[in-house]
Design goal:
The structure holds two protein chains of two kinds.
Chain A: H1 2-17, H2 32-38, E1 54-59, E2 77-82, E3 88-94, H3 104-115, E4 119-123, H4 129-134, H5 144-162, E5 168-176, H6 178-193, E6 200-204, H7 210-219, H8 231-248, H9 256-264, H10 270-296, H11 315-322, H12 326-341, H13 347-353, H14 360-365, E7 369-374, H15 382-392, E8 396-399, H16 411-422
Parallel strand pairs in A: 3-4, 3-5, 5-6, 6-7, 7-8
Antiparallel strand pairs in A: 1-2, 2-4
Helix pairs in contact in A: 2-10, 5-6, 8-10, 10-11
Chain B: H1 10-23, H2 60-88, H3 91-115, H4 119-134, H5 143-146, H6 156-162, E1 170-173, E2 177-180, H7 181-201, H8 210-228, H9 241-256
Helix pairs in contact in B: 2-8, 3-4, 3-8, 6-7
Classes of the chains: A alpha/beta, B mainly alpha.
């Protein structure tokens, strides 16, 4: 019965797709925002291994660090290791903006790689609070060069922790979304340090330039009524829609089935779906801003010198931080911080340094790189998709649709994903 | 992230509470040496917008302490026990145990559906209980779901909501976690009904040490409950996790009473 329902849902999803999908590619969801939110329908997902040997690592990267009481629960940088009981290649996996080592996407990639016989270590994104607190030396994320140094150091520590227990034949590197862009910078750094000598490096839906991509996500909020300053009202309105839909319909659980039903009923317009992506980015960004501000005592959203305890209400800080845009964060916080550190740093030159073009000579010359992305990934413009094609040639796989990461778990994508690491 | 450990028995709660309170859980606060300076951005700037994911929380100080207490209880007691359980008990048996307690739980849904005058829910739940207790071998299997009878939800908190009792303030309970005054009251009533039912029927009346067996069963039930809840306090590492969980819980509670 459950299978039947799943098939019916799938059929309904395929119906609207039948029109634009005049190609061979079988991923069914045509809208970029919708694909990003819904991901891959269950029956089209690549199968996962039944059992995985998994262990969490908590790395004490800076033993001298005194953590503020408000982060009393933090036990060190959390990474997740999946290990084979035989000698195998190991893939380091860097999560995307605001995501940690246990994010759905990271776990999906981990499962696929594990099923194909790899060891995997997933790391949180340098933009995740856990990384900002523990692994970032500046506690100010967003500078790709410094982020890469922090990531590389974390990888060395993770490897140090597990090398007695897992037998590794060679190392690979992978990252998705902003993590893909990070992976390129980490790979370049490792060429100097010669620690892992990654054989293959895969960038999945990477940003070509961090600043531009994030501003495109921010741009999704421009199209909601009242613009980004009214995200609170927008959030409540969208929520009321879902609540009403649930109340009227024959739903019991609040789960994927409800989500697909919401999609099928066209509850949200295209712009509203985009707004939800923008909003979810803002929620991540709020966590980043708050964590960084507490760690650096910059007085950005928390009064300077205020000591927050384990039970202090934080609602007001959230309310402020969620209303701050990436542009606020960049111009008022990141750029001034790095200008102080590197006197004479020019704003537009700094923005240019936050992307793949700044290291394109290296990327073009090295045969170890590959990229996967989609024509309709809204963090890129067409010119940037073409740039990735030019940069990586045949090693760039560009799918006709899937939005930002929506088609990751689709079985053809997962087969290509694994295929890349298997290549000689 | 359904309600945490609804069925954990009071004696277990008391024992754990004692253990944990000895370990000490109040965070100490160091005072700042330097004077505070106002932040660059404050709420005053954003009063023209509605709040995001905001729920009134008059007992926030208590609730946050309890939230942190539950985090430690989970970390030092429940999660190690559940980990051991998952390691020792075969996956198939774990599934059977989950189904078994789920099936007994249908009785709670059943009488609450009656209290709520929800005929369809009552019939579906009755059908589920019947099918799973018989062809489902005493509830170890769940053929009802395969037959298209979806598991329903019913507890006394929902019944109160059905008859227009307000949710009341948000309340984080020890062990049980996020609640509202209404769901906490409902939980107490359901627990009372259950206690009375067990002592009236007295299923182990002729067995020696029946109460010990009953306590053992309740312990397994509590372990199964925690095993099923895929949520860990502070696992997200997100600084506003408390606020979001509070919001999600209250929304979920609000949506459930419409069913």
């Amino acid at each position: 019965m459950k299978r039947l329902i799943a098939l019916v849902i799938l059929w309904l999803l395929l119906l609207p797709a039948a029109v634009p999908a005049a190609d061979e590619y079988g991923y069914p969801i045509p809208g970029a925002y919708e694909a990003t939110i819904l991901g891959t329908p269950g029956p089209l997902k690549a199968p996962r291994p039944e059992r995985m040997s998994v262990r969490q690592l908590f790395l004490d990267i800076s033993p001298a660090l005194r953590k503020p009481d408000v982060f009393f629960y933090d036990e060190g940088l959390r990474c997740t290791l999946a290990y084979q009981d035989k000698k195998a290649p190991l893939v380091f996996l860097i999560a995307g903006t605001g995501a940690d080592d246990q994010s759905q996407k990271a776990l999906a990639m981990m499962a696929a790689l594990y099923g194909a016989g790899y060891h995997v270590i997933t790391l949180p994104s340098p933009t995740h609070p856990n990384f900002i607190i523990n692994a970032s030396r500046s506690h100010v994320p967003g500078d790709l060069t410094e982020d890469a140094e922090d990531l590389h150091r974390a990888m060395e520590l993770a490897w140090d922790r597990v090398k007695a227990d897992v037998e590794v034949s060679e190392f690979h590197l992978c990252g998705y979304s902003l993590g893909g862009t990070h992976a390129a910078f980490v790979a370049r750094l490792d060429e100097e340090r010669k620690v892992f000598n990654f054989r293959k490096v895969l960038l999945v839906n990477p940003a070509v330039n961090l600043f531009n991509s994030v501003n495109r996500i921010e741009g999704l909020l421009e199209r909601i009524p009242g613009g980004p300053r009214k995200i609170g009202a927008y959030f409540n309105r969208m929520l009321a829609k879902v609540t009403e839909f649930y109340r009227r319909g024959d739903y019991v659980d609040i789960d994927d089935n409800l989500l697909y039903a919401v999609y099928k009923a066209h509850l949200f317009s295209h712009d509203e779906s985009g707004g939800l992506i923008g909003l979810s980015f803002r929620i991540s960004l709020a966590g980043l801003i708050f964590s960084s501000d507490v760690m650096t005592n910059s007085g950005y959203v928390v009064p300077k010198n205020r000591v927050l305890g384990a039970t202090d209400p934080l609602g007001d800080y959230f309310r402020v931080a969620v209303h701050l845009s990436f542009l606020n964060y960049f111009d008022e916080y990141v750029y001034p911080y790095f200008r102080k550190k590197r006197p004479g740093l020019d704003r537009s030159a700094y923005i240019a340094s936050l992307g793949l073009r700044s290291i394109e000579g290296y990327l073009k010359a090295s045969p170890k790189f590959g990229a996967m992305t989609n024509e309709d990934d809204f963090i890129l413009v067409k010119e940037e998709v073409d740039y990735l094609r030019g940069l990586f040639g045949e090693r760039a796989r560009i799918y006709p649709r899937g939005g930002h990461m929506g088609n990751l778990e689709y079985r053809d994508n997962m087969a290509d994903f694994i295929g890349f690491f298997k290549q000689e | 992230m359904k309600i945490l450990l609804r069925h954990a028995f009071p004696f277990l709660v008391a024992a754990l509470y004692l253990v944990l309170s000895l370990s000490g859980c109040a965070a100490t606060r160091t005072s700042a040496l330097l004077p505070e300076e106002p932040a660059r951005h404050t709420v005053a700037e954003f009063t023209d917008d509605e709040r995001v994911a905001d729920i009134a929380d008059p007992w926030e100080g208590f609730n946050r302490s309890m939230y942190n207490f539950n985090y430690r209880l989970d970390k030092y007691v429940f999660l190690p026990v559940v980990k051991g359980y998952e390691f020792i008990v075969p996956t198939l048996a774990q599934k059977g145990i989950t189904n078994f307690f789920g099936n007994i739980g249908e009785l709670r849904t059943l009488y609450n559906s009656a209290f709520q005058l929800k005929g369809k829910k009552f019939l579906i739940t009755f059908g589920r209980f019947l099918a799973n207790s018989t062809i489902g071998i005493g509830g170890l299997l769940d053929p009802a779901t395969q037959m298209g009878l979806k598991k329903q939800h019913g507890d006394f908190g929902q019944t109160l909501g059905r008859w227009n009792v307000g949710a009341g303030p948000y309340l984080v309970l020890p062990v049980l976690g996020p609640n509202t005054m209404r769901s906490a009251g409902g939980f107490a009533v359901d627990a009372g009904i259950r206690y009375a039912a067990i002592h009236t029927i007295d299923p182990l009346g002729n067995v020696n040490h029946g109460d010990v067996i009953l306590a053992g069963v309740s312990t397994v039930e509590a372990i199964d409950m925690r095993h099923r809840v895929r949520f860990g306090y502070y696992d997200s590492g997100y600084p506003f996790e408390y606020d979001f969980l509070r919001f999600l819980y209250c929304k979920w509670d609000e949506m459930l009473i419409t069913k």
